[in-house]
Write a structure and sequence with these properties.
The chain has 186 residues and is of the alpha+beta class. Helix content is 48%, strand content 18%. It has helices spanning 8-18, 20-29, 36-63, 79-94, 101-120, 128-132; strands at residues 67-72, 74-77, 136-141, 151-155, 164-172, 175-178. The protein has a six-stranded mixed sheet. The chain starts with 7 loop residues before the first helix and ends in an 8-residue tail after the last strand.
């Protein structure tokens, strides 16, 4: 049984926020066709708006306690996919020649294709912002959760024990971020 994804805007914003390194590089590199007066603010918006939407979704999940207790049966770490993902996306688009209008349009269309593929294949959890905040990406197999359908857990933990129970906030129907108790003052 396939889990309905839900949260289409959040998923799209997660895909776009994962492309933040590309927009940083494009803003730094510039273009002979698009003036810096337009390119730099566009790149800034493409970095800030998706990240703000993602952070807002996490904040909303915390405020309304949109959380789930998860029993971990098997956790697979996917850190290596982040590097593959970044180089698959960054290198071709960064190396594109932005000196003619035609090359800018070709890069823009390639970008749209990449966004579509990442959105459609549910790769929206690959995000450099999570890596910077020391979150690891795990695929969780849990017989009781989601009718046995695996889902993604973002966690700062380095390993999990079999049958370990954790609480996580729901970002989308298949992506959760582990809840950590705030340290109490002594």
């Amino acid at each position: 049984m396939k889990t309905p994804e839900g949260f289409p805007i959040v998923r799209l914003m997660m895909v776009l926020s994962s492309m933040a390194p590309l927009f940083v590089l494009v803003a730094l590199r510039g273009s002979q066709v698009v003036p810096d007066l337009w390119l730099t603010p566009f790149c800034f918006i493409m970095i800030a708006a998706p990240l703000a939407t993602l952070l807002n979704r996490i904040r909303v999940a915390q405020n309304i306690e949109d959380e789930k207790e998860i029993t971990i049966r098997n956790a697979t770490d996917h850190r290596e996919y982040l590097l593959v993902y970044l180089f698959t996306m960054l290198v071709p688009l960064y190396q594109a020649d932005y000196s003619t209008a035609r090359s800018v349009w070709a890069a823009a269309i390639a970008f749209v294709f990449i966004v579509f593929i990442f959105y459609h294949m549910n790769l929206h959890y690959m995000n450099i912002a999570f890596a910077i905040c020391q979150y690891r990406v795990y695929t969780i197999d849990s017989d009781k959760e989601k009718d046995g359908v695996p889902f993604i857990l973002l966690s700062r933990d380095h390993a999990f024990q079999n049958e370990q129970k954790i609480t996580a906030y729901r970002i989308s129907n298949t992506v959760y971020i582990q809840k950590y108790e705030k340290e109490k003052p002594t």
